[in-house]
Amino acid sequence: MPISHGSLEPLRLGRVTGRFISASVALFAASTVLSGPSHAGNVAPGDTVTVGAGDTAETWDIQNDATLNVTVGGMIQQTGVFGTLNMSGATATPTAAPSGYTINVFGGKANIVNSTITGPGGLGVSGFFGVPGSAAVTDSAIEGTSQAVLVQHGSTLDMTGGTVKGGTHGFELINGSDVTIDGTTITSGGVGILAYAGTSPGAIGSSVDVRNAKIEAVRIGVDLQDGSSADIRNTEITTTGSDGFGVRSVASAANLVDTTVSTQNAHGIVVQNGGSVNATNVTVMTTGDIAHGATAIGAGSTIRAFGGTYSTSGINAAGIEARNGGHAVIGYDPRTGAGTVIHTTGNSAVGVLLQNGSSAEITGASIETNGSHEQPYWAAAGVLAIGGSTATITDTDVKTTGDKDAGGVVAEGVGSHYDMVRGSIHTTSATAAGAVTFDGATANLTDVTIVSEQGRGITAGDAGSVLTMNGGSILAKGSGNEQSAVLAVRGATINVNGVSVRSENSNARGLHAFNPGSAVNAVGSVITTLGTGSHGGFASGGGFVAVTNSNVITEGVGSHGLVAQNDSSVAATGSVIKTTGADSAGVYLLNDSSAVLDKTSVVSEQGPALQTAGGSVVFDLKNGTQAIGGKGTVLTAASGTTTTLTADGKSYLGGDMVAEAEDAVIDASLSNGSLWQGAAKGLTSASVDGTSHWLMTGSSDVGSLTNDGTVEFDAANPYKTLTAATLNVNGGSFILNTKLNEGGAASETDKIAVTGDANGIGMINIRNNGGTGAFTGTGTADGIQVVQIGGASDAEFQLGSAAVVGIYDYQLKKADGQNWYLQTEGNDVVDPGDGSGGNPGTGHVVDIVPGYNIALSAAQNHVLTTLDTFHERLGELRSEDLEDGFHAWMRGIGKTGSYSPKSITGYNGHGFDMTTAGVQIGADYSKGDVFVAGDKLTVGIFGEYANSSFDVRGRTADGSISSKGLGGYVTWQEKAPTDRKPGAGAYVDAVVKHDWLDFGVNAKSVSGFDLRNGYKGKATSASIETGYGFDLGNNVVLQPQAQLTYSKIRADGFTDNYGIAVHGQEAESLIGRVGVRLEKTFYFGDEEEMFEVAPAKPIKPANSAKGKKGAKAKTVIVPLPETPKKKKFVKSVTTFADANAKHEFKGKNGLVASGTGIGNDMGGTRYDVGVGVVARVSENVSLFGRGAVEFGGSTNVAGKVSGGLKITWK
User: Where are the domains of the chain?
Assistant: First the structure.
């Protein structure tokens, strides 16, 4: 019966035949007619016949229910078994002209032990009328010149040990047969084990279990077809022919465990037509070309390799292959966790080869190829997916060592794709890449480690090809232009995200995009190159390289950070570009290329940050980008080049811009808050917008300069010149370093030199560089020249800030009608400060200095205004009104006046106007009969806040003084002679207080700029006052007074924002006052209804101190009989007028401003007259107030008001 083995290209298998021969049919026919007793050659039903040693060998027919026992040494010839055959130590040999199988079991049973069966066919086991046959063979030898063993039609065979040798088949299993083989050696000139369904109606595949066996076949070790199955364990399978394979599963299933498959010029394992092979810890070794270790062919065909080793040595001999929709699963041995090892040594021998829509799942494998690339085949890649095939690769290590194009993991063609997670790729060939996509293929790698000894790390080629790598690392050790760690060509795209990219050799590339449409995008990655001429990112031939949130670091000589050439471009966003090698630029452009740098830092330690090497290029810096050049150079441009540089959005340029030849063109612009710190060396044009800043560190030359922002001459290297052919300034400013002195031949200053025309309106800000100021004069050639214009001088300049030094205030003037000078005028007389008493010099004292000086004079008034007199502080507080106990009070003070102190130096002094407002709150305690009977001693404290403002007359200076103070006082008052004579008697009042002062002084420079400064000070003041009231009758009292007041003020030293050093600020005052007060008291309310009665008996006060005089008899006031009291709102009102003369015994104040002493004298005698009122509104509450006018001495005129409230309680 013919058996189809299918077709496996490029193998060509013929058709094999197995059948029972005519003798079998004859035996079958005989069995149907034999009857009667048993005789030689026939065993009748129910009989048992034994054949032993020495018996004649005969042909036997064993009937149903019959038994033939062949014992040791027994021999038989062809035997048909419908009953039972037992052989032990026997031999079965066919007749002289044999055909068919020597032993044929037809629905019967055979037990064969230690026996030998030979013939054209050895042992056949078949069913008979639906009854399957069975055989058990142990330690026996079966040999057939054709098939050795045939099992069919649901029959079974258990074979243990022994040998099977077949000319064409060792075992042939047909139609549902079940065979178990354990420890048997099988040798075949064709197929070791063949299992299939056959052609019978309803036929099915067979099954075989193989244990501990050894199979040696010329063509096929195990061949499963038509849904057959095999479980093969601990078995060695060897084939030697070139037209076969070790194990084949055609629409069948095989399970191989701990098995070895060796072939010569043939595939190890083949799966076809939807079949499957599960191989666990299987070792497959093939030799010969196109001899794959394992292959799955066609849709639904699956090879599963769990652990084990797959080794091939021939050309184009893949370790594991899947094609035409086949599928491969490569994983761990579930028992041990060992991964699968795939190793090929032949040229063009791929580790895992996927073709024509096939797929693979690879986990935990180790794949190594050692072969080179041999045409016309593909290179010896570790994993190759082509023709729309796909692979998922996890925790796998791939290594290739071939010398031509032996890529690690490769996908080629539209629809081809692989995903690789973790694991590693290691290549050694100079033309190999670790991970590759071509011709529209795609790939994703995650956390993979790639090492390329001589070639590229990852490569993508052709439009539509996309390779994405997330995490992991790439190390490329090769040298040469092609040895890039990352390379995209011919329109492909590579994305590396969070990857460490490292190139260690010379003339290599970290990232490389070549050809139009090619792009490399790096995000969150670190790109490092070490070798000479090895660039971090390289775009050429229209390629594009972009780095985002990444670091690009190069260490070799001539190794640039980013390079774009020949219509290419590079971009960096949120990244760091750093070069440390000599002659290495941060970004290097040539030949119509461009760079966009966004939120990026470019730092070149030994070369320019930006470099133009040829053609026309564009550098676009934005959003806070920083470009800092080594050796002080941010940009160089070679001869014949054109460079456009824009710095926008708070970008920073650190270093000089240098045109290396006169024909080099550099057009630079700063916008939106950008800053350039460096010098211009041959710039064609420079533009600074209204928000940007150029900090010029060296003398510079620019063809056309437009300054709408700020150009600042660096203070570290003063006295530079900015030369421009033309200047356009639109509200822009220049900050110059100048030694502010007398000018002329002594001038030392930065300078703006315009060789052509100057237009617009600009500001000049002067930073003094050690000058002490001087009178320059105001002639056409006087002063310090800061702007020189050679052409039309249509530009207008003015100072952008005050030019002040010491006490001198400089102006900017177009003194000669063409150029601009700093000059001072001579309005003030000042002490030359040399101590010689020589003639005073001349010059304009800056207005803030008179402000500082007048602030001291104003502080004297401020402090004394709140010190006042006893009555102004507390009102008319009579001893007789004071109950023993506590009192609280508060009052407000206001004063305004005009003052003209005298100057105590050669400086022309100034008067000032001043207004003060303040409030005081206090509390005290009174105790009676302390020193004499009826006296009162009061001890109190108070706090205050006051604020003064002043204006310096004839100057722009003004200022303010605010203070917070604490004070204490002690007051002694003598009791009036009688209760109806209030206010008479003596008093003594002593006060001390301390104030903390805050000064604020403002002024304008001669050019109209606001000058402001604030500083602090302290003041201590004290007063002692006495007076005596004389009773004039009719409730009128005349009270002479005397007072001595002292104050000391010290203000902090400082150097203000304008360079004026101020120290020695002091003011001191000692004022003596004499005056007289005349008062009249009016009584209201309850007192009008009282009358006096006789004095009561004198009594001694209970609280009188020992040794004091006793109290005299008190007059008792009693109400009129039967007359009701009339309550009035006001108990009493005292009106008064006073006049005082005050003489200042000290009154001087002064300071030293930048070495010049300036001071005032507030001395002299001044007078004041005042009126006031005290209203006692209840037993415990009084209101008081006073108004006065002051004049004389340093006071032109001043007015003052004060008023308050006093509350008393026991």
Answer: 608-692, 698-825, 848-971+985-1084+1128-1209, 1090-1125
Q: Which has the closest alpha carbon to 1158: 1086, 1061, 1092?
A: 1061
Pairwise CA distance, residues 472 & 499, whole Å: 5
CB 76 within 8 A of CB 104: no
d(CA 636, CA 652): 16
Give residue for tokens 């990112």.
537
Beta carbons of 277 and 269 less than 8 angstroms apart: yes
| Cis, peptide link before residue 376, omega less than 30° from 0 | yes
Phi, psi of 872, deg, nearest 5: -70, -30
Q: What is the C-alpha to C-alpha distance for residues 227 and 231, in angstroms, rounded to an integer?
A: 13
210 by Cβ neighbours in 10 Å (0-12 / 13-18 / 19+) ranks as buried
Please calculate the CA angle 444-448-450 and round it to the nearest 5 degrees.
110
Give the 3-state secondary structure percentages of the chain, helix then strand then coil, rounded to 5: 5, 55, 40
- Strand-pair category, 803-805 with 808-813: antiparallel
Whether the pLDDT of residue 841 is over 70: the answer is no
- CA distances 850 to 64, 799, 1003, 1006, 1153, Å, are 144, 22, 9, 14, 10
Q: Is the CB of residue 1178 less than 8 Å from the CB of residue 885?
A: no
Residue 277 to residues 326, 327, 328, Cα–Cα distance (Å)? 12, 11, 10
Choose among 608, 603, 673: nearest CA to 643. Answer: 608
Separation between Cα atoms, residue 1141 and residue 1193, nearest integer Å = 11
Answer with the residue of higher pLDDT: 975 or 434: 434
d(CA 680, CA 655): 9
State yes or no: pLDDT of 13 exceeds 80: no
Q: Is 940 in contact with 923 (CB distance < 8 Å)?
A: yes
Length of the chain: 1210
Q: Can you name the residues that pair with 940 across neighbouring β-strands?
A: 924, 969
pLDDT of amino acid 815: 86
Query: What are the C-alpha distances in Å from 488 to residues 495, 537, 567, 591, 913?
Result: 10, 12, 16, 20, 81
Q: What is the pLDDT of residue 804?
A: 87
Say which CATH topology domain 848-971+985-1084+1128-1209 has: Lipocalin (2.40.128)
**Backbone torsions φ then ψ of 361, nearest 5 degrees:** -120, 115
Q: Which residue has the higher pLDDT, 1073 or 1?
A: 1073
Buried b (16+ CB within 10 A) or exposed e, 573-610: bbbbbbbbbebbbbbbbbbbbbbbbbbbbbbbbebbbb
Q: Which of 103-112, 270-279, 1110-1119 has the lowest mean pLDDT?
A: 1110-1119
What are the CA-CA distances from residue 358 to residues 281, 297, 326, 418 (Å)?
A: 24, 9, 5, 12
- Under a CB-based contact definition with an 8 Å cutoff, are residues 617 and 585 in contact? no
Q: Give the residue among 984, 1028, 968, 980 at the shortest CA–CA distance from 879.
A: 984
What residues contact 787, with CB distance under 8 A and at least 6 apart?
751, 752, 754, 758, 764, 795, 797, 819, 820
For the chain, the distance separating the N- and C-terminal CA atoms, rounded to the nearest angstrom, is 139
CB 104, CB 79: distance < 8 Å: yes
Strands 535-540 and 562-565, by their bridges, are parallel
DSSP 716: T
pTM given for the model: 0.73
Token representation of residue 937: 């001693």
Q: Is the dihedral of CA 111, 112, 118, 121 positive or negative?
A: positive
If phi > 0 it is left, if psi is from -120 to 50 it is alpha, else beta; for residue 776 that is alpha
pLDDT 10s digits, 260-315: 999 999 999 999 999 999 999 999 999 999 999 999 999 999 999 999 999 999 99
Q: Name the pLDDT band for 464 (thresholds 50, 70, 90).
A: very high
